[in-house]
Amino acid sequence: MWSGQPHPDEGHPPPLEAVPVPWKSVGPCKSHRESPRGLAETPGGEEGPAAAQLDVLRLRSSSMEIREKGSEFLKEELHKAQKELKLKDEECERLSKVREQLERELEELTASLFEEAHKMVREANMKQAASEKQLKEARGKIDMLQAEVSALKTLVLTSTPASPNRELHPQLLSPTKAGPRKGHLRHKSTGSTLCPAVCPAAGHTLTLDKEGKEVDTTLFAEFQAWRESPTLDKTCPFLERVYREDVGPCLDFTMRELSALVRAAVEDNTLTIEPVASQSLPTVKVATVEFGSTNTCALSGLARACRHRIRLGDSESHYYISPSSRARITAVCNFFTYIRYIQQGLVRQEAEPMFWEITRLRKEMSLAKLGFFPQEA
Fold this sequence. Notes:
Layout: H1 49-158, H2 189-192, H3 195-198, H4 217-228, H5 237-250, H6 256-268, E1 271-275, E2 289-291, E3 308-312, E4 317-321, H7 323-343, H8 351-369
């Protein structure tokens, strides 16, 4: 029997059959069936404790439903938020990859730009060095051409060092022989006695008035064929003979390797002969490398007093040479200088005077290779 006091465990109400009060309908309900409003009223007209307990149950049931619906709503929102977060993560990952790719491309572009800049700087330096070298060569050629022009003036005034052309210089003819002359009659004593005064550096002191001369037809024919189209090609018959008989033996020294370099420098007109005494002057600006000594010839290897030294091309290396070696090199250089004048059209003479001048230069090469050389002052 119910005592009227609430049960200690409010979460578990007593069974309904313990309350002998019928259910009473109040009206329709949307969410659940309407339960009786209350139990039978007491004789005093007041509701009992059971009605209050039912109200509590209804409130708890409603709160549970609300809680379940709120939980479902929160789960849906959480699911949506997780989807959005996943999409954001994917977007961040994609943007991170794009950023990494852009950084790599930027690094590659920067490296390529630096490499291109360094390449342009190297090319500019190489072009500048080449331009400076060309300028130096051009200045050297200008100096050489000025020296050749000076020598050409002397050559035009005297025709040839060995035999001045009396047709160009009538004052050299005697009063009784002022008429026109042909052939080799100009090689008389009048012209030959002037040679030491005209070309003292060549060392030509032979008198030609007592020498008999006869033109070799084979040599003269080769020279005339070369004169029609002058060239420095050593394969033509005229120069091939001179190389074989004179130039080669004259430049054939004991030191074969250096001899080949000297021969190439002579052919290219890049060999320089300097007095040894000039190096004591304080005007030398470039450090040089010297081979041998002033007491040993670099070409023959013999112990000789070397008063000159040679330099090959643009090299700063110098080689000391003896007077005999210098005479042999000078004889070959004189020959090449004269044939270059002919090739350039600077010698305006008949074929026979040119031939005899070349023959004289070949004679100097022959004497030099045999050891004859003029004594230096």
